[in-house]
Structures are given as C-alpha cells and as structure tokens.
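Incident log, structure service

09:12 report received: a user says their structure output differs between two submissions of the same chain.
09:20 pulled the input from the user's history:
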Amino acid sequence: MAQPLELDGRKGRRFDPLAAAVALFFTLAVLFAIYPALRAGPANMGGILLLLGLVGVVFFAVLALRAARDGGGESAEPVLLMGALDEPAALVTQDGRILVANLAWDRLAGDSPRLPKAQGPGALFAALNAARRGETGAARLETLIDTREAVFTSLDARRFLVRFKPPQTAAATAPAPLVEAAQPATPLDAIAAAAPFGAALLDGADPLTAPIGQVNPAIRAMTGGADPTGAGLASLIEANSWAEAAARITQGREGPVEVRLAHDPSRIAHLYLTRNGGGFVAYLVDVSEQKQIELQLAQSEKMRAIGQLAGGVAHDFNNLLTAIQLRLDELLQRHSVGDPSHEGLIEIRQTSLRAADLVRKLLTHARKQTVQRQALELGEVISEIEVLLRRVLREDVRLETDYGRNLPVVRADKSELETAVMNLAVNARDAMRAQGGGVVRIRTARLTHDEAKSLGYADDQAASGDVAMIEVSDTGPGIPPDVMKNIFVPFFTTKPVGEGTGLGLATVYGIVKQADGWIHVDSPPGKGASFRIFLPVYTPSETEAAAPAPVVAPPRPAARDLSGAGRILFVEDEDAVRTVAARLLRARGYEVIEAADGEEALVLAEEHAGQIDLLISDVIMPGMDGPTLLKKARGFLGDAPVMFISGYAEAEFSDLLEDEPDVTFLPKPLDIKTLAERVKQQLQAA
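09:34 re-ran on a clean worker, output below:
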C-alpha cells in the first residue's frame, strides 16, 4: 500500500517565524493607517478603499511568491506517483538534492536532504547523466541498512525519480557501478584513451584469467603494435615476472606490482589493478627510465660510500705507516750498512713503501689525494706515455695509437692521468692473455657535447661545449654483465689470487672524478672492452695566455745537514707518530713541545707565547682540529711558520686557511729525512 506523503519539502510545512512577523507588522501598519481615516468621516472613504486595494495586491503577491518558492510551478502528478509506489522513492534535482521523498525512502535512507553516497568514484554522476540523456541510470547507494541498487529515471529537464530496488532484485543481478555495463569501453575511452600509461579493461571477476576487453593506444605501444584484446593479462607480461606478479595479486598485497613487459623484458612497468563493477581495469605505467636513474643514483651513492670508507681507512693506515717508517729510520741509524740487521730493515722499508703506494691508490679512489693540476696538451701526454707502454706490453700485444685533430688542452695532474691510462692499458693486456694476445688501441679526440653523449658521456652537471676524450680499447673477450657493475669497486678483481689488488680501475675512477671528468665503459659480448675518459676542455684565461712561459728554476737542493735549532710545537693525536717524530727531531738539535690534541696545544701556545719558532700540527684530530687551532693560537704564535701534516689531501682543508700566510703541507706517511728537511727549510725561510 502506498505510503502517505509529506508534500512540502523533506519534512512537511513548518511554521515560518519570519513570515508571521511580517504579516503581524503589516496588519498593524494597515490598522494604524485606517484608524485616522475612520475618525475623519466619509470624506476620506476614497483613500480607505485605495488602501484596501493595495493591501489586497500585496496579499496576493505574497501568496504568489510563496507558491512559486514552495511548488516552483511544478505539477503534483510526480508526487502523487511516488505515493503509489511501494518501493522507496524520491524526487531529486540534477545536483542530487532531494525535493520530495516517501516514508519508505526515509526509513531506508534517512531524512538527509541529499542522495546517499554511491559506491565507486563518479557512479552517482554517471547515473544522473544517463537519466538526463533519457536512459535508465543505475548506481549502488549506501543506505542505513545495506548497500542497495537505485534506478534513476528522468521526469523533466530538472527533476529525476530515484527508486531503490528490493534486496532480492539487487542480488539477482550484478550491474556495474557505471551506467550501461554492456558498454564498458565508454568510461575507458573517456578517461584513459589519451593517457601516456597503458590501460586495459578486464571482463571478468578474476584478474588472473579475465580476458582483455579493450585497451588504449599506450598498451599497443607496449606490445609492439599487437592487439591483446581477447587474451589475458599474462600476455602483456614476461613469464617469470608474471608468476611473481600473480602470486602477489593472489595474496592481495597492496601497492603496485613491478613487472617486465613480454614484448621487451628490459622494460619495467608498475601494474595497478582497480575494480570496475564486475571486472577490473589494469594500468601499466612504464618506469624503465625511472629505474635506470634509481640504479645510477644507487651506484653513485655506493661509490661515494666506498670512497668515504676508503679515505677513512687510508687516513688511519697512513698514521700507522708514519709510525713504522719513523721507527725504521731510527733503527737504520743504529744499524748502518754492514750490520747483520741492516738488510732486514731495508726489506721492511720497501714493504712499507709498497703499503704507502696502496694507501695512495685508496686516497685517489676516494678523491682525497693531493693533486697538482696543470694545463696539459692531450696529444703530448699520450705520446710520452706511449714509449713506456710499449715496454710494459708483451710482444704478443700490439699497441695502436690514433691522435685526433685539433686536440684540446685539459687541466689535470699529469702523473695521475698517466697512471690512469697505464692502468687501463695493463688491464687490457691481461684481459687478452688467455687468447694469446691482441691489440690495445688508444684514441684521443676532441668531441662536441652531442658527439660525447652518443659515446656514453652523461655528466648532466658539466657545461655544454667541447669535450676531450681518451679511449683505451682492446680485442679481448669483453666484460661479463655480472662483473660490469663491480669493476670500479675497490679490491674487486677477477684475476687469480696474488696477481691483482683490485685497485687498478678503482684508481682510474678516482683520478677521472678528481679531474672533473667522466668515465664510460662499453663492452659488447665477445667484442672487447672500450674505456672512454671524458675531460672538460680547458681554456686558459687572457692573463694566462698572454703571460710568457715561466722560467723553470733548478730544484732547490735538499739540505745535507739536517740538524738545526729552534722551538717546535708538535701537535699529533697519534701517540706512536708524535713520540717517535719528536724524539728524532730532538736528536737533530730541536726543542720539541708535544701536544696530544688541539686544546692542549692552545694552552701550551699561550704559555710559550712569542717563543715558538714553528708549529707542526695534524689536520684531523678529536675535538679541536688543526685549522681551528691555528686561528685561535695565531696571536700567540706571531709570525711563526705553520706546517700541517695529514693523511688526507690538502684540498680537504685549504679553503679554511685562505687568510693564513706561511702555511705549508706535508702529506703522510712521513719519513725523518723528509720531515727534517722541511723543518729546516721552514725555519731558515722564517
């Protein structure tokens, strides 16, 4: 039986206090106006009649406005129609506002002035649009009891009839949340046709077996132009990758699934699945370039971390080597030539020198080695090293050189650059040993920025312009892909035990990076390997270009007499280095004041203010470091020269000493001869 209706809006007519107040004051105003006229007699009867006419006009105007507001000029037939409906029904506007609802609707959906929330994004809007086009729209709405299907039909251009289906009717069918479930291509085309990512509509409740009903152009591009319609989602994904993805989908894990495309397994995509009524929509987003950038960033971070570790280990190892070498110097003075122990001490010294060279390579990889950059003619550098390379390479290895035209000038440390080329050539020689020899080819060229990029140059921070290239290639078997990712890692080697330290290519990497360059490796399987070093072209300034070539002065002869006099403040946190060095300096006539850290040194400098002739200090120390000590103690030192010693490169702290005069640097590991010579030179110059 039909339910009684509340025809005036959502809850029937309500008392309007504002309208009552207006009516009351209007009535009082009319009475006040009539009262004087009645007392004046019949002479004012015309005015009274005119006033009554105006009152009538106003009264009927108010009624007309109220009727227009409440009814809107709309007929009552749709309202009466809802009264004849047994199912919950409501009359709504195109924006979802409820005009009138029967009591069955209120019991099921509540007395909200708007339609309930729909399941699925845009489902309610799609249903109203379908009804506006004269079709029957459908959407599942959340009621007070459950989620139930509602049917939308149009009454006129502005009003729509919404009816809830009974629960059994809604369960008997499984309509899609979108209008016209028989045409699923419409929402896919409207949303994803022009999208740069792939979209495929799956017609089935199981995404692992559902056939593909429709795809957008981006999917076809991922399949090489083939049309996957009718096939399953597995046809788009590489077999092994699909097995992992299917297991993850079955487990119901959230988030995208990383897969490889079947057409090109080197391409990586993220797979997203979203429900679409009785089926699914699968989205494939190609993230190959993003993954490549992530791998490059991870490799860069890995090399940086390894460099920091290598630099720290090298610094500590330099302190140990300094203590060993100073102690050896002391023992060699006691056991001169002819002593039975002298030969053994010399062997220990040679071993320590080899260890010092190993530390130097570590520091080079960590880009913490002290370098001396200079303008170098690229052709001259390779020409000079070519003579040495022909002696290093065996008879079964042929060396070929190709000097390009108009070779540029680069700015780098000459000895370091020669070491890099030498290491690459020796590695190429060793790679061809198993096949009985081959050809090592060194090519130099001046390239434009675009030409360099085509050959592997990928330094985005470098300025555009010409680039210098040194290419060292061989005809060996090449580098396997699983080895390629580790070739620049320190101590990684494929050579037999005892034949390599694993620092050759790591040193090359550090040298190139320290010269603001880029290194790229190209090694097709079975076609050898090509290492390309790219260096920025150096353009001398006008002052440098106009300046005449400096006259090279003969090297200053080393001081033969290493004894001297003077008061030295020696600051070093490593006890083994400080005590041995201080004892050896005292043996040569110097007065040495020892300090174990910066704070103690500052106190001693204040106690001996104006009496210190030379400050020797380590750079990195616990607490106060060397540069900070110098700035705080400068007032007590006066014009005394300062010499820093450290296992790190001078460039690590040179910017902290820009305003400090008479500061020199001596790298570790130290030997007493070098230390005594530098001390005497500094005191003589002062």
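09:41 both user submissions now match this output. Likely a transient worker issue. Closing.
09:42 reviewer note: The two ends are 116 Å apart (CA to CA). DSSP finds 21 helices and 22 strands in the chain.
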